[in-house]
Amino acid sequence: MGREAIVVGGGIGGLTMAIALHRRGWRVRVYERAAALTEVGAGISLWPNAVRALDTLGLGDAVRARGTVEIAGAIRAPDGRVLFRQPLDAVVRRHGTPLVLHRAHLLEVLAGAVPDGAVECGKTFDRMEQADLVVGADGIRSTVRGLTWPDAPAPRYAGYTAWRAVGPAPDGGLREGGETWGRGVRFGYAPLGDGRVYWYATANAPEGSTWSPDALREIFAGWHGPIPALVASAGEVLRHDLYDLDGMPSYARGTVALVGDAAHAMTPNLGQGACQAIEDAVTLAAVVGDDVPAGLRRYDALRRPRARWMVRQSRRAGMLAQLSSPPLVAVRDALLPRVPASAMRGVLERALTWSPPAA
Fold first, then answer.
1. How far apart are CA 263 and CA 227, in angstroms?
2. Which of 74, 116, 242, 280: disulfide with 259, CB 3.0–4.6 Å?
3. pTM exceeds 0.90 for this model
4. Residue 280 belongs to some domain of the structure
């Protein structure tokens, strides 16, 4: 009959996990709480490390066909002044091309590669079930984590909330993406290549704050173009408080493992959240063998140091971008133009220098 795995969660990490295990000969069931597999309203960055992981599953070309090349952008001040520009030429030469695509398109590629009948939508997981392997890919409020690690640290509120949307590109299109940093607020955007733009915004706020529908228009009304136009033309806008999760004592216990946000939720400042979930899935499937607990211990040893570094780097980047004190913002904006491109390139090199482990 072969070995059986239960994957809890049908998002990007969970579906990648199911595909990777299936390619290694596992029988897989995916439990998804939602009534259908859907990802709406937002875009996603896939850096070369994630695309390289998808290549091992034979899915890299399908994702490249759905995405558009992420063009080097800049960090700007609200009046449009360039504070810092990080060209991606060196990154592309060494590691490959970063991509931007709609999350729904990535989900379509993954869902099309999952074995027929493996995904059970409308299925909740509220107790441990008998299986050779259980993988929690069920997000930052993971049920699997709560059942297996009842004393695990709670997710930490980052101090700011985020809006995400996809809308039409302004007249004339967009030549590049980028971010604009204000005082405790930020706006970023990237062309999707199909006449639409993925954009996001952040604002410092107490956890659980409520916002009026006009809040975004008011915040960004005086910012440089095309920001006000993007906000004005948005359809559905998603808003979520942002959290991260650091300090898990392990990502595996016995025959249970965690991947993605369930193990190491991170703020989106490096664009690596989904990328790390994909790395997790490919790594776990490669190293788990007949001795499942031993394989999961190796998975933990391979993944936890790297993922924790990514969580902390993303946290630091967010702290800098979300500064709100006028004197500190003035110092930040004065120093950023003097930062050599090599400084940021060092972080990118460590983030992108990754290869899937041998089985």
1. 34
2. 280
3. yes
4. yes
